Amino acid sequence: MSIKVKVLGFILYLLFAVTRIADMISTYNASPDLKQEVNVVVQLFGDWGWLGIFLIQMGFIFLVGVAITVYERSYRKCLPEREMGFGDFFGHFAFGKTRVEMREQKAPTGRGIRHSLLTSIMVILNTATLGSFYVILNNVWVAQYNAYPFPGEPAVTFLVVVIVSYGLSWMVYVVWVGFVYREWKKGWDEMEVVGVVEVEEE
Could you list the residue range(s) of the whole structural domain that residue 181 is in? Predict the structure, then answer.
């Protein structure tokens, strides 16, 4: 596995873990009794108290760690077996289809489903991490001013934040795939150099 890709995966996982912990701390400062908290996790498991919230959040962190590990061990299976440009590489790596295959609207194959599942892991992780920054800001603001930072219904604001975070998460994923493409392309370039040397020696 590429060291750079592994380090990037660790950074993304670390960011997710930090935002989960920061979310709990800021939530406690804003609403120690959880009565003002509208978080879905709190709504579902708030009766368990802070111990329950802590265990659920640690469970999320553990599951994301497992997902990242699965991704890092499987992503090489999504690399194409022939050289191509970044556009086709991204389509193949993320969805199991090149741009031509996408235009032909071919039905997903087993390969495409696997690629899409791995892509979903990263996009969901990025969305959760980016969205958490708003949640933390919201909690800090409520604790400081006893009011929400943005006008309007908090649930609507949160929905907008999720949509924006989802869009930004794809931008992050494109950068991620760019690093993978760079490492993969380097391997192809090295193979071509070796091929030239072998021909010259013959």
Answer: 3-81+115-201
